[in-house]
Amino acid sequence: ISFNAIDSALSSLKNCQSYINSGMDVATQVALDLVESFNDEEDINNMEKVMLEYATMDRELNHYIKAFEETINQVKREKPENLPDLENLAQEKFLEMESKNRDSDLERNEKYMYFKDQLKEMKKQCSLFCDHGNDTIEQIDEDIAVTRSQTNFICPITQMTMKRPVRNKVCGHIYEESAILEMIQTQKQKKRKARCPKMGCSHDDVKASDLVPDEILKRVLDSQKKQ
């Protein structure tokens, strides 16, 4: 196998990763819809199994990619007179990584952790429905909005109601996606770190990689908008 062939294989593997990420996003949305619709718990558990299957595929792909990259770097570093069998060398590295697999690895998958977090939050919100007896959906939506408190609706940067809220995984604060990304980019150009704009927060290094969509808050905001 030539270096060009390996580069092509790596590109294909990374494309597959994007498909897995998209699949996990869809599975998360479906699970949230199931909770919101009061579907059977078994259906929701099945979606969690789907997420774990995706996480397994993602781990395997990561190992393939790392094995190929390590193989290329090793050959370039050692510069052997006779080019070894790159395919076998990469396969050995891959199998070594796979032998160290643990079930707990899957539960640390970032998309899976986000799935669990959002599912837990959605179940909390939906538990409010059980406490409202025969109230109308409009009344329940209004009560949910109140329990989330108005401050959660307002971006600390724009001071306007958010449309695409994202939550900071480090400090837990929520911002309008475009506003926080612009702030991070502006500070980066000044060669400074972006401080969390939420008053009283001590987190002084907000990164784009730390931001995740707050699907639950977005659903509440969308519901309020429809009313």
From TrEMBL:
GO biological process entries: double-strand break repair via homologous recombination; protein sumoylation; protein ubiquitination
Domain SP-RING-type positions: 140-226
Chief location bin: nucleus
Xref: SUPFAM superfamilies: RING/U-box
Keyword Transmembrane helix: no
Compartments, as annotated in UniProt: Nucleus
An MF annotation (GO) of this entry: zinc ion binding
Involved pathway(s): Protein modification; protein sumoylation
Pfam families: zf-Nse
SMART domains from the UniProt entry: Ubox
Keyword entries, A-Z: Ligase, Metal-binding, Nucleus, Transferase, Ubl conjugation pathway, Zinc, Zinc-finger
InterPro entries found in the cross-reference section: Nse2(Mms21), Ubox_domain, Znf_MIZ, Znf_RING/FYVE/PHD
Domain of life (superkingdom): Eukaryota
GO cellular component labels: nucleus; Smc5-Smc6 complex
Family statement drawn from the similarity comment of this UniProt entry: Belongs to the NSE2 family.
Name of the featured protein: E3 SUMO-protein ligase NSE2
Species annotation: Toxostoma redivivum (California thrasher)
